[in-house]
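To whoever is covering the structure queue this week,

Two jobs came back overnight. Logging them here so there's a record in the thread.

Job A:
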Amino acid sequence: MTLEEITGKYFVKHEKVHKYPVPSNCNAKRESEKLHTTIPAGTEKCDHCFELYGTKGG
């Protein structure tokens, strides 16, 4: 496994951070947004991308 495969990738769209690739339950689409290997400070996590499996909401 490479380091890229181990570390997550994220992008910011409309001040929300999304996982990349985007999970099927999220409608965000990455266009030209920069990919990050860490979650950028000052951003809000997308509820869909960071939802725990088997849970609904907070």
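Job B:
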Amino acid sequence: MPAVVDPLIYESLTTEERLLTNWAAEGKHMTVKDAQNVLGDGVDWRKAKSVLDSLTTKYVLERKPGKDQNRHRTWYLRKKRGRTPHASWG
């Protein structure tokens, strides 16, 4: 199934969240360090992880299973499937 982001959800994202979503839409998996690099200079790892976690709670990104504090753990664009809290994903 192709990776899909609902247009209504995409419009509600912050600029930082959109940057990471667009980067992930290229089929890339990202670590916190990757997100930090995409967001630019002056962004520490805590901010980058916060944006990734925000995208996870909005059902835009998913995390590979593993330990929460594993620096090699990656996020990737969520595949459209099943029901989510967003009616348009149905």
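Note for Job B: The longest helix spans residues 45-57.

Please reply-all if you pick these up so we don't duplicate work.
Q.
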